[in-house]
Amino acid sequence: MNAKKVIVIGAGIGGLVAATHLAQHGIKVTVIEKNQRPGGRCDRISRDGHHFDTGPTLLVMPLLYEAEFAALGTSLNNMLDLQRVDPTYHLIFDDGSQLALTSDMKSLQEQLDSFEYGSFQGLLRYMDEGHRHYHLGIEKLVQPDFRKAADFFKLSNLPLVYQVKPLAKHYANMSNYFDDPRLKAAFTFQDVYMGLSPFEAPATFSMMPYTELAHGVWYPKGGMYSVVEALTKLAIDAGVEFIFDTPVEQIDVNGNSARGVMVNGQLREADAVLANADLPYVYQNLLPQDGQAEKLAHKRFSCSVVSFFWGLDKSYESLAPHTLFLASDYRENFASIIRDLSLPANPSLYIHAPARLDPAMAPSRQDTLIAIVPVGHISENGEQDWVELRDKARGHVFRRLSSLGINDLESHIKFEINFTPPSWRKRYNLMKGSTHGLCHNLTQLGYFRPDFQHRHYHNLYFTGASTRPGTGMPTAMVSGRQSAQRIMDDLKV
Fold this sequence. Notes:
The mean pLDDT is 95. The strands form five sheets. Strands 7-6-15-16-17-14-18 form a seven-stranded mixed beta sheet. It has a five-stranded parallel beta sheet with strand order 9-2-1-13-19, with helices on one face. Strands 10-11-12 form a three-stranded antiparallel beta sheet, with no helix packed on it. Helix 1 packs parallel to helix 11, helix 1 (13-24) runs parallel beside helix 17 and helix 5 crosses helix 10 (207-214). By secondary structure, the protein is of the alpha/beta class. Strand 10 and strand 11 form a beta hairpin. It starts with a strand and ends with a helix. The protein has 17 helices and 19 strands. It is 34% helix and 19% strand.
């Protein structure tokens, strides 16, 4: 009997994982990727001995990674050379105060009590809540494949309304644990990972600071792109075929099924098609218009970022691996990004120095720096001046670094590569340049996110940031596995 054929559009994390699961079950899988290498937005730039991750710069939720690598028949530690990053972040506030987030509870207690006496007890209670939210969130919202409404709307899920606080706002919920606004910011900024403001994110996301402190923040040798390389190796070992530098022009449909994809004007047929391209892009550009693209375009999208990738001819050893500057006008920061789709007047921003963790990320006595400034996504009217906003963002990075005594960085830049929201849109087909796809507000969380399967074309499936369970590398691995299982069930493999 001839093997079933599946075409995967896009070699992002979800596409790589799904392709491997399918191939391991005897399905003939071809992955067609528009760019020259796998990874999607989890990309790598290398130039003159400097190496940059364009996507995530740290590995969080390691238990989820472990489970997903195990499902692929291997182990996380076999595939990656991991080191724990501790302190995880160095937080710097506008008043000059600093906080090193660490799993060393004695050090953390001393630091927290210097901000607000007794706040360490608040942290312990917050961690208890985060523990509950993490384990229930993974069990009830991330791992299940909600194939029908009854899978989610059932009596056993009713307690989630008070167990994981989906109706409470994350920042408002912090008043139960801290009074100092700096501490409230220190344990809610992770909501940006979901493309959300903590002033509108569900309190459920206390699971993120919890997993960072409890399970650790990790860094793989070679950077986060090593995860992509490991997944690609597993896919190739399973027999997956890759075609790079080849954009898919459209998904060919007939009646209620997908026949395959159009590439270079030719039809490549398949028994099923799995789209790992950004979901709103697929509906708008690869499928016949039936109103769904417009509906998706009116959903809430995540914010974007302006990213700077600098190769420096000088090493800045005093700079920690992960430095985060948190603005005192925290609420206004997020309002500027989410409401005004712009750059805050005094933006919070993040700086990553990968060579502190892996010296091979920069030439000897030189440095590699990544600066990330959150901004709004591309507006409907397209009136944002991204050159001006990019230049303002760059100035803010230099200003922030000067507060640490680093005043000469600009003169030591050998080269700069930068991404703005239009760059993200062009390179990775991300609608509105939103780096995290659809955001994770209450009505786009869990079951309420778009399904893995098209409602009309029964053999067309989806995986990635804008589908279930959501954005991020480990959840993309879950998405890949779940979408592959859906395909195998339907193909009766």
